[in-house]
Every structure is written in structure tokens, then in C-alpha cells.
């Protein structure tokens, strides 16, 4: 399957978790969504950083003039737009990944397991490692500070979490790279089967 056709097929079947998807369809769609995600994150980051820098410049001018300060730009709208676009880019890839696993004879749950385990480990780490009364945003700020200096136990937990996710992701990629099952399997006929 060609690149453009794979992307169109992925977005056309974005809500379809049944059936099968070939390797070319999945990998072309995965490449497209990965590059589009990176470009989008760069673009929205640029727009938000530029808005912040313009605000800081206006704050400096206002403080020199001795007038009241304006409010900083809110990150809520870029966050909502960003989450919506990232979700729209990700859903077709997830559903195509489930269909690709169907093509190799596996259940689609294999695609969801790494994400579910990752969220479970994050929730457990939050409950076990974060002291009571700490706001969740303060925990997010810890990712931007040298936490190994202040909290080595949290740092080691994050390293273990990263190793676990990388290992699970490698296992998933190995499953996605397996050859398709020939003929009809329990999930249906092969994708784009050529009939005489």
C-alpha cells in the first residue's frame, strides 16, 4: 500500500477496531502521525513561547513606565488545542495498530497493555512517592528541575519506569513487525486480498 493511500485508509477507519491492517498500512500511518505530531508540538511551542516573550517584553516596558502590569497569556487554550490535535493524530494510529495485531493473529489488547501499565505505574508512583498535600502541578515542575539532587528515590523510580516502558514498547514493535498470517484468520480475511 502506498503512503497516501495508507494515511487515507487509517483516517477512514479511525473508529474500526475489527478486521485486519497490513504492515505497510500501519508503518506508513505511524510515520506520518509521528512526524505530524513532532511538527505540531514544535509549532504550538513556538507560538506559546513567542507569546510569553512578547508578554515579558511588554512587562519590562510597563515597569519602566511605572504603569500596571498585564496578565500573562494563559496556557489553557494552547493546551486544549494541542490535546485535541494530538488526540486526532493518535486515534487512527492506535486503531490501525490494533488491526495490525489482528493481521498477525494477536488480540488488539497487546497494543493497549504498554499504555495501561505505564499509567498504572505512574499512578502508583504518585501515590507512593509524592507526599500528602503536594499539588499535582508541583509534581510536573519536578520534571524540569534536577530531582536527583533533592529526591534520589523519585529519580530512580523514573528511571525504572522509563526502562519498563522501553522494554514493553520494544516487545510491541516486535509483534507489529511479524509477518501477516496467510489466508483468513479469526479476525477476518487478509487486507487487500487479491482475488482472481
Tell me about this structure.
Helix 1 (3-12) packs across helix 2, helix 2 (23-65) runs antiparallel to helix 3 (76-103) and helix 4 (109-129) packs antiparallel against helix 7. The longest helix is centred in the N-terminal third of the chain and has 43 residues, at 23-65. The model has no long low-confidence stretch (mean pLDDT 80). The chain has 2 domains: 1-103, no CATH class; 105-180. By secondary structure, the protein is an all-alpha fold. It is flat and about 75 Å long. It has helices spanning 3-12, 23-65, 76-103, 109-129, 136-142, 147-150, 152-176.
Q: What is the overall number of helices? A: 7
Please state the overall shape, judged from the principal axes of the Cα atoms.
flat
Mean pLDDT comes to 80
Termini separation (Å)?
A: 19 Å
> Could you tell me the number of beta strands?
0
Radius of gyration: 23 Å
| Number of spatially distinct domains | 2
Strand content: under 5%
Which class of secondary structure composition applies to the elements?
A: mainly alpha
- SSE order: HHHHHHH
Low-confidence stretches: none
Task: Characterize the main sheet.
Answer: none
Amino acid at each position: 500500500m502506498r503512503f497516501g493511500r495508507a494515511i487515507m485508509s487509517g483516517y477512514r477507519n479511525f473508529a474500526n477496531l475489527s478486521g485486519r491492517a497490513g504492515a505497510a498500512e500501519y508503518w506508513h500511518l505511524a510515520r506520518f502521525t509521528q512526524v505530524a505530531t513532532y511538527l505540531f508540538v514544535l509549532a504550538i511551542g513556538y507560538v506559546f513561547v513567542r507569546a510569553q516573550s512578547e508578554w515579558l517584553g511588554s512587562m519590562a516596558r510597563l515597569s519602566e513606565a511605572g504603569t500596571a502590569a498585564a496578565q500573562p497569556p494563559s496556557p489553557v487554550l494552547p493546551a486544549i488545542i494541542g490535546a485535541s490535535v494530538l488526540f486526532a493524530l493518535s486515534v487512527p494510529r492506535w486503531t490501525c495498530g490494533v488491526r495490525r495485531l489482528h493481521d498477525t493473529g494477536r488480540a488488539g489488547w497487546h497494543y493497549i497493555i504498554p499504555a495501561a501499565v505505564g499509567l498504572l505505574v505512574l499512578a502508583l508512583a504518585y501515590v507512593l512517592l509524592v507526599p500528602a498535600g503536594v499539588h499535582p502541578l508541583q509534581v510536573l515542575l519536578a520534571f524540569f528541575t534536577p530531582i536527583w539532587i533533592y529526591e534520589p528515590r523519585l529519580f530512580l523510580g523514573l528511571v525504572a519506569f522509563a526502562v519498563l516502558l522501553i522494554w514493553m514498547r520494544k516487545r510491541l514493535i516486535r509483534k507489529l513487525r511479524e509477518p501477516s498470517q496467510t489466508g483468513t484468520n479469526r479476525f477476518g480475511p487478509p487486507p487487500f486480498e487479491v482475488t482472481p
